[in-house]
Amino acid sequence: MRHLVWQKSSFSGSGGNGSCVELAATTHAGVCLRESDVPAITLTASRAATRALLSRIKTGGIALKAAP
Question: Could you tell me which residue ranges the DUF397 domain spans (predicted)?
Answer without folding.
Answer: 4-58
